[in-house]
Request: fold
Amino acid sequence: MINRHVKATVLMTLLLSVSSSMAASQEKVSTLADQKEVAVTIYNENLALVKDWRTIVLPAGESILAFREVSGMIRPETALLQSSSGQNGLVVIEQNFDFDLLTPEKLLEKYVGRTIGVVKTHPTTGEETVEDAIVLSSNNGIVLRVGDRIETGLSGGRLIFPDVPQNLRDKPTLVMQLASEKAAPHDIELSYLTGGLSWKADYVAELNNDESRLNLLGWVTLTNTSGTSYKNAKLQLVAGDVNQVQPVFEKRFREQAVDVAYEAAAPRMTQESLLDYHLYSLDRPTNIMENQTKQVSLLQADKISSSKEYLLKGQDYYYRNIYGDLGSKIKVAIYLSFENTKQENLGLPLPKGIVRVYKKDSSGAVQFVGEDRIDHTPENETVRLMLGYAFDITADRKQTDFKKLAGFGEYNYVFESSYRIELKNGKDEEALVRVVEPMPGDWQIISENHTHKRISSSAAEWHITVPAKGSSELLYRVKVRF
Reply:
């Protein structure tokens, strides 16, 4: 009876082994060794299009293809497998994305309720023994049933697993059930959208001594946290805000450190229009390695005319109530602007990003003087950067008079008020300050000591020259109807 039971067990084991080997033999594995070419198009909002070309030999009839080393953040519903050489007779029946990657924790989790081997080493003799154990739990540690006892922890021991469970892969893998008319090599293209790949533009501007011109260098900064590398990839970047429907499934975020790689400083990117966006193409293949930040030169332009402006901007609430002293030593902002035109050696669509501005000091050392973020800027537009606040130019604003002329209802108020703005300049040269006062409702300047300009329906503007080591005043009275 015992012999019959042993024979049955051995036979069952052999059948399971044969079945397992047959299943394994039916799965065709494609690795990067099959890859002929890869192209990556990266968009602004954590989105990329990957096109992966491979040559794979498939049997006739149905088969399972494990397409390894796809992005770990692939959007599987966007995957499209097709012949890249016009071959027919290849049909995708089903596909599954296996993103449960092989780790010691995951492997242990998959073996809960199953038998593994526990290897223990004798502390004095060094002799190793193996015991069978059932994994009871893997949460916050391991709990095992070894014979008639329960053990936790593995002091001085290690675990042996008979195999890797199904759907647990060491690399992100797209598994597809295919049907092929005949056994033959197939040139196939797998395209899909993925997260984990992003890019941004960064600019470095260096001002000359009198701040009348600047040199501009643009960098593209790529970040890859998608879970795979793209070697010798054709790289393209799309600048523009592409609409995306938010997926309903939970996003998987990867928080990992990244390395930084720098490409040559010579401009190597060309641009063209794409729908209402702009497409930038790198003129040579590049490696986009996993967990890496790479910088590629985007543009370089020299001797661009620039202008500096001092701006004091008020608030529209001043005109509704009595405020008196509205604050002392108000900061005056510093703005730098230049024209994105071919006449200024530029005239390129500038992707959104941060512009960092530098200037040399008297000893010739380059110093950082401010930065600002720009939006996508087409050709022939003005780039305007807020660099900070002036140290030597300050302002004092006071409300010198306030009257309610009419109005006791909700919408028919009329107020009249007057203001004094004193601008002070501690620099060795005179400064021109642009004063912009937002004004609510229907407004009218009644009196002023400098001529204003109505720059919009809700703002007045004055240009005040402040002498070196001196001060200037702006006085005006305004009537406002709500």
